[in-house]
Description:
The protein is an alpha+beta fold. The chain has four helices and nine strands; from the N terminus they run E-H-E-E-H-E-E-H-E-H-E-E-E. It has helices at residues 14-27, 56-69, 103-114, 141-153; strands at 2-8, 32-35, 42-50, 73-86, 90-99, 130-138, 162-164, 166-172, 182-188. Helix 2 (56-69) packs antiparallel against helix 3 (103-114). The chain is globular.
Amino acid sequence: MRLFFAIDVPEEADEALFEAQRGLRELLACAKVSWAPQEKWHATIAFLGEVPETDLPQIIDAGRRAASRAEEFEVSLSGLGVFGTSARYGAAVWAGLKASGPAFELLAKDLRHSLREHCREREGAAFVPHVTLARVRQASPQQLKTLRTFVRSYTIRPSVPWQCARIILYESTPHTPNAPYRRILDFSL
């Protein structure tokens, strides 16, 4: 099973995310890009990757414990960013999320610590809450330079802040681009 914990992105944020994708589509028209569809928009809190199904009860228990210790928090969109920008390995373009206080970051830290034997995130790595908009698979060095400039200068339309009251454990199907994520369980904060 390929698992991750995330929060959902509400419809209220969709238009700002679509607008950012439109600008990116024009910019990256000649590059090889995989666009994240609306139904897959989420903010990953902890990526576990492939885990044996026998570990699922332990993972659910860790999610339940972390959620029970967390407080609800408010989130809004906050700028664009990019992970990786090499012609060889590509890049991931994302819309950032900003929480109203420390609750989101504390939840991520607690959940990742609870899942440390399963989690693919490096212990102590910075938590960068975001919604992936596109994965650039192949682009010229000039396109990547233009992408970095665009991301730095782009002002995402402010979204209505939304209240995050739960985290979700999802299963993804690798190498099946249009397969929806399977919602395994919700955990109330």
